[in-house]
Design goal:
The chain is α/β, with parallel strands linked by helices and 322 residues long. It is built from 9 helices and 15 strands. The protein has 2 domains: 190 residues, Medium-chain alcohol dehydrogenases, catalytic domain (Quinone Oxidoreductase, Chain A, domain 1); 112 residues, Rossmann fold, CATH 3.40.50.
Length: 322
Amino acid sequence: MKAIRAHGPGDPGVLVLDEIPVPEPGPGDVLIRVRAACLNPPDWYARRDFAMIPDHLFAGERLRVSFPWIPGSDASGVVAAVGPGVTDFSVGDEVFGLIRFPEVNNGGRAYAEYTTAPAAHLARKPPSVDHVHAAAVPMAGLTAYQFLVDRIRLPAGRTVLVNGAAGGVGHFAVQLARLRGARVIAVASSRHEGFLRDLGADEYVDYTATAAEDAVRDADVVIDTVGGPDAHRFLKTVKDGGTIGPVFPGDYHPEEAARRGIEIRGGQVHSDGGQMAELAALLADGSLRAGIDSVYDLADAAKAHERAETGHIQGKIVLSVP
Ligand SMILES: NC(=O)c1ccc[n+]([C@@H]2O[C@H](COP(=O)([O-])OP(=O)(O)OC[C@H]3O[C@@H](n4cnc5c(N)ncnc54)[C@H](OP(=O)(O)O)[C@@H]3O)[C@@H](O)[C@H]2O)c1
């Protein structure tokens, strides 16, 4: 089969199309004929062997990538074979999911014509959603879901500010917060206003014209996909007793946050087929939509990574696998 591999760390150009054997599904796994795979930030972090991630962001030892390495944790495709013990899926089923995340060296390997995945990480793709739009959902959609539902347990009727609202995680967080009855304030650059209002954002802060901390005072919850050393400015946007969900780590001045009763609830997204099925139901009835920034052929994975590195992503970048 054809697969994109990096034989060592570096710029997007390290991603090359190789011919390698089709993998075998192990116990509990299915073999997927991949029809679309999606880019996520860990793909380009790992491609550079995490060189840009500071030591303190690793809980224990630094992650190291074993090259040659096939990127890709998000896949949508068709079941081509099932391994021992798989009863939930059969050959021919259309499936999608976040595969073996957060593993790196034994991760999803979705930039390929075939990949294996634990059946427990997959859900059936809704027939009304094509593979490109389905592949766009798993990591970003599960991240938004796991922050809003598992960690923050967002009650109805709250005000939610989403920073980085146009990106992969952000645009799903806007929609999932709205579905839970929230008033949503989207923070993004000017080019994304139409996109985010169409997805249901009630208010829009163009951070290139107005700093969010100058415009917002009353959020119950901040979902911050940007983070970084000046992330504490978002404390001004949250009510006392509110919650900040740092999707990317940041400095939220923990002492000031504690004094004001503001909880910081972060964490790492993980594969979950049951939650994928919940997202599938929302996609099927049209209440959740994947925004597509751009689509590249599998062979052009390096170009897709170049697009990712220019930033200002609106939705997701997807690889179509012919
Ligand atoms: N905790 C977890 O498990 C988890 C899971 C997934 C992702 N992440 C992390 O979360 C971050 C976001 O992931 P993603 O997939 O959503 O990335 P993404 O698709 O690249 O989106 C990032 C978005 O942020 C916007 N942005 C950039 N600078 C900004 C600023 N200063 N203020 C407001 N918006 C800004 C960009 O567009 P504009 O600048 O044009 O508005 C872009 O739309 C990444 O760092 C990723 O590693 C963590």
